[in-house]
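FORM 12-B: Structure-to-Sequence Request
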């Protein structure tokens, strides 16, 4: 049996977790918007056309913030197409996904949905085919009080009060040549700086996110980030990272070790930000907005072939993947990384909310069901709030071609003084039972600890046919004695243990 021993102390605290790390992402891609969050003909649709079953599950999932409207979509998007009377909105060709965009959902509709879902909006501006003027007009429409052209336009469409959207992304994945309007790092850095500078003149209260690298494996990673930081550090508050992992051609132990690549990615970009901070001799520290992350199990070639074979559809089905137990374990470790590095990762967006690489799956005019990745997200969003504790661990490890030491048990511990609780999140990467021991020093424990786990005898099992195939199970595989928790985890499993406190 593989063993992991973890020591935490109440006084050894790393940082407070920003709740926005439990964000998600809604892009005009596939069926994310249309027949995803919005379907006026659906039996559960409200007066604004939003599926209430999706709204309920978004709240149950614990989503705190949502990025919109893209994604690749934003780099060829004119936001003016999506406001005003719906019958007058143009049908446009979306070049990112080769589909027809009806523009029946736009800025005002999304903001209505965000209020219903009780999430903070994170908006992206088009720095692909557009630039400074378009970004300023959208900011004026959203954030400025009545009395100017675009704010009065908003008022004329029925919204008198400004939305006061705080967080704005300066473009999307501008490092990738797949992006409409792709730019070099120098070109993007200069445009981002001038756009951000102008936006903060208009509204000094906003915070801005630069486009960092969209994959840790990109050939330009490092050079891109350093050049962008050198050009645009002065206007920015965050730099974004994007990361997806797929299991094609990988053994389970290699696939589950990829969360270590994500850790390395975060560490490297933090180092670049801090190097630029020192170079500028400033106290201003840039943090990370990890605004796209997830598991991408589909082959891009197959998705692209489908798009090319059937272009210019409305709300086409593509990119709809079905997550396995194995995928769920890596997904869990990725989210645990965001908790672990929350001293610098302040915002994160799981990608995407519905239908495409999603937690929530819908059928047009039909039912809704949940992917297994929904559950660890919901557990961590509810119980992973508060303070990340320093951990000292002795642990059995294994080696892969890329990583010398991969812990069999991934772990992170969160102390929530308000809920009077310590939550331990665990992933057993191994194919046999693993023992996890947690020693809690200076904590006064109370009775009533509870635990839930996700596991399945078939690592390739999913919820596609049997929607209840992988669901949380309450566990009794642990004991607590003298402030020491001992747990014997199922093979290839995710587990959460919540320990109530007496003080």
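FORM 12-B RESPONSE
SEQUENCE OUT:
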């Amino acid at each position: 049996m593989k063993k992991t021993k973890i020591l935490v102390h109440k006084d050894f605290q790393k940082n407070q977790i920003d709740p926005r790390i439990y964000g998600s992402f809604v892009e005009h891609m596939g069926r994310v918007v249309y027949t995803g969050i919005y379907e006026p003909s659906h039996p559960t649709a409200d007066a604004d056309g939003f599926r209430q079953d999706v709204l309920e599950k978004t709240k149950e999932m614990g989503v705190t913030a949502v990025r919109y409207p893209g994604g690749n979509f934003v780099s060829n998007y004119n936001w003016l197409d999506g406001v005003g009377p719906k019958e007058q909105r143009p049908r446009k060709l979306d070049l990112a996904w080769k589909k027809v965009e009806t523009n029946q959902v736009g800025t005002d509709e999304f903001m209505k949905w965000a209020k219903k879902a009780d999430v903070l909006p994170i908006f992206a501006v088009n720095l692909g085919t557009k630039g400074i003027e378009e970004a300023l007009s959208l900011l004026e429409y959203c954030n400025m009080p009545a009395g100017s052209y675009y704010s009065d336009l908003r008022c004329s469409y029925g919204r008198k009060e400004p939305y006061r959207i705080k967080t704005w992304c300066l473009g999307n994945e501008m490092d990738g040549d797949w992006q409409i309007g792709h730019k070099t790092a120098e070109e993007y850095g200069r445009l981002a700086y001038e756009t951000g500078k102008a936006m903060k003149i208009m509204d000094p209260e906003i915070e801005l996110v630069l486009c960092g690298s969209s994959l840790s494996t990109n050939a330009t990673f490092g050079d891109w980030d350093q050049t962008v930081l050198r050009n645009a550090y002065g206007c920015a508050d965050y730099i974004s990272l994007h990361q997806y992992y797929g299991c094609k051609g990988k053994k389970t132990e290699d696939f589950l070790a990829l969360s270590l690549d994500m850790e390395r990615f975060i560490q490297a970009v933090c180092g670049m930000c801090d190097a630029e901070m020192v170079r500028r001799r400033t106290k201003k520290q840039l943090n990370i907005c990890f605004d796209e992350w997830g598991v991408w199990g589909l082959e891009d070639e197959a998705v692209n072939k489908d798009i090319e074979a059937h272009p210019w559809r409305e709300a086409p089905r593509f990119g709809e993947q079905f997550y396995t137990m194995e995928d769920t374990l890596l997904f869990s470790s990725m989210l645990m990384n965001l908790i672990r590095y929350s001293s610098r990762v302040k915002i994160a967006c799981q990608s995407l909310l519905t239908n495409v690489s999603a937690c929530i799956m819908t059928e047009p005019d039909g039912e809704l069901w949940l992917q297994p990745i929904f559950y660890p997200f919901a557990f961590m969003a509810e119980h992973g709030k508060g303070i990340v504790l320093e951990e000292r661990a002795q642990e059995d490890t294994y080696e892969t071609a890329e990583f010398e030491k991969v812990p069999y048990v991934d772990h992170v511990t969160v102390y929530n003084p308000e809920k009077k609780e310590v939550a331990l999140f665990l992933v057993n990467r191994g194919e046999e039972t693993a023992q996890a021991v947690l020693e809690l020093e200076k904590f006064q424990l109370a009775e009533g600890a509870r635990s839930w786990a996700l596991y399945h005898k078939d690592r390739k099992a999913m919820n596609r046919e049997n929607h209840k195939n992988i669901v949380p199970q309450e566990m009794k595989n642990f004991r607590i004695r003298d402030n020491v928790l001992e747990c014997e985890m199922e093979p290839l499993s995710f587990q959460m243990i919540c320990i109530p406190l007496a003080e």
